[in-house]
Amino acid sequence: MTMRISFAGKKVVHAETNGFTIVTDVPSEPGGSVSAPSPVDLLLASLGTCTSYYVLHFCEQRELSLDGVSLGLDVERNSESKRIAKINITIELPPTFPDRYLDPIVKAASQCTVKKYLQDCPAIETAASKG
């Protein structure tokens, strides 16, 4: 997989992959215009949407309704570094959701591929080239 990154003016950045353009911006404090999600927002969205896929699949396999099912992500930051220290994911379920599936749906959600990448980080190398 190859992703092309380009600058679109101010602090806006485009990432192009598989025919899609993903747009990011940064908060106003470092000079952004807040016209799009930040890169960290996209990281969290990737984790949340990946986790939700496993929740969706779990419910579909058991013919459980998705009405009232959603996920919430809450972030705890390190007070010194200001970086994310912990991400809490809550699977929000309706009162009618069967109790016997509470632990299994958490186990299914924990299979998220993005979560696994974050827990077992890939090597990242940065280089420069002149074209």
- Overall shape: it is elongated
Instruction: Give the second-level CATH assignment, the architecture of the largest domain.
Output: 2-Layer Sandwich
In spatial order, strands of the major sheet run 1-2-3
Instruction: Quote the average pLDDT.
Output: 94
Largest sheet: 3 strands, antiparallel
Termini Cα gap: 21 Å
Radius of gyration, taken over Cα atoms and rounded to an integer in Å: 18 Å
Number of helices: 3
What are the salient characteristics of this protein?
single chain; 131 residues; alpha+beta; GMP Synthetase, Chain A, domain 3; three-stranded antiparallel β-sheet; two-stranded antiparallel ribbon; 3 helices; elongated
Q: Can you describe what's shown?
A:
It is a single chain. The protein is an alpha+beta fold and 131 residues long. A hairpin with a 6-residue loop joins strand 4 (70-77) and strand 5 (84-92). The protein has a 3-stranded antiparallel beta sheet, with no helix packed on it. Strands 4-5 form a two-stranded antiparallel ribbon. The protein is built from 3 helices and 5 strands; from the N terminus they run E-E-E-H-E-E-H-H. It has 2 domains: 1-36; 39-119, GMP Synthetase, Chain A, domain 3 (2-Layer Sandwich), CATH 3.30.300.
Please give the structural blueprint:
Layout (H helix, E strand, L loop, with lengths): L3 E4 L5 E5 L2 E5 L14 H23 L8 E8 L6 E9 L9 H8 L3 H7 L12
Antiparallel strand pairs: 1-2, 2-3, 4-5
Helix pairs in contact: 1-2
